[in-house]
Backbone:
């Protein structure tokens, strides 16, 4: 057999969308449960952390740790090798998602007093983002921070797998025609 | 500690779960005696139909979002994420359908598991969205 046919194929952990879907769904349900059980204390707690300024760093660390644990569990369950690229890629994507939400929340926070000042649009006078809006943004960031990185990893894996199969086929074809 | 019960969100969840999943299964179950069909939900929804139902759930939650009176930016972000989750759920059905239309085999087990898990995601996110909308409406009424 030719050396081109023996070259090693990519053997990273194969991620399926349904793996992260269960975790994201469970966390979303827990979020709803926290609001049902503590309808006043839970939004107040989030608002307090947001005002202190530790909200997004703490949130990013929590999501990165959660996603890495999930990836470890997936690779262990499937008995696949966990390299360095996938965990780093997932951590990077999680941080990017959290940064996107930070921008959205900052924009909403800045928009509230401006709209009141210039457009006189707000019937409820606010100094910044309301605790209800923060509650909804946090829920969306939690779900996206778990689901979107895995979705992008899956898309990347499909792309890399297709590309490596195509190059493998091309090598085999050229080896056959060479003989 | 006062527990708050989101009646409208629970009503929404019950209505969709009943008409989307339970009623079709019950209809099939009632015909079990006559035709000897396998009435397990796994057999009934083996082609990823649960994923398609997930997309419908996401659309209904987006329609509720539009009526909420929240800032446009927030409605848009929430709607995009809901529809995205719904589309991913529907992709389980779509993948099975396209493979079947090309005459390729697709393991039933995988489609059923994937569509079920993705439906769980959509159901959870949509339910939490409904709870948040009800909470916001109550706070704004005060």
Residues:
């Amino acid at each position: 057999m030719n050396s081109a046919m023996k070259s090693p194929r990519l053997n990273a952990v194969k991620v399926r969308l349904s793996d992260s879907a269960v975790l994201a769904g469970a966390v979303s349900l827990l979020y709803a449960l926290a609001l049902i059980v503590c309808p006043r204390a839970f939004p107040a707690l989030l608002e307090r952390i947001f005002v202190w300024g530790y909200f997004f760093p703490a949130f990013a660390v929590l999501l990165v740790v959660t996603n890495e644990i999930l990836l470890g569990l997936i690779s262990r369950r499937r008995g696949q090798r966990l390299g360095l690229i996938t965990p780093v890629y997932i951590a990077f994507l999680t941080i990017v998602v959290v940064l996107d939400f930070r921008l959205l929340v900052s924009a909403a926070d800045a928009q509230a007093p401006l709209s009141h000042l210039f457009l006189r649009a707000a019937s409820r006078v606010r100094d910044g983002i309301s605790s209800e809006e923060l509650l909804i943004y946090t829920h969306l960031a939690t779900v996206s921070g778990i689901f979107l990185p895995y979705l992008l990893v899956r898309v990347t894996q499909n792309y890399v797998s297709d590309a490596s199969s195509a190059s493998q086929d091309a090598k085999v074809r050229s080896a056959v025609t060479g003989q | 500690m006062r527990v708050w019960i989101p009646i409208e969100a629970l009503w929404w969840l019950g209505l969709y779960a009943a008409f989307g999943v339970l009623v079709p299964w019950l209809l099939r179950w009632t015909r079990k005696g006559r035709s000897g069909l396998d009435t397990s939900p796994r057999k009934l929804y083996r082609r990823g139909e649960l994923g398609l139902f997930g997309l419908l759930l996401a659309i209904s939650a987006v329609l509720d979002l539009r009526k909420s009176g929240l800032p446009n930016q927030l409605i848009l972000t929430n709607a995009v994420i809901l529809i995205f989750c719904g589309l991913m759920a529907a992709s389980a059905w779509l993948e099975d359908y396209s493979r079947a239309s090309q005459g390729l085999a697709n393991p039933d087990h995988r489609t059923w598991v994937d569509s079920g898990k993705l439906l769980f995601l959509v159901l959870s996110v949509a339910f939490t969205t409904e709870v948040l909308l009800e909470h916001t409406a109550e706070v704004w009424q005060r």
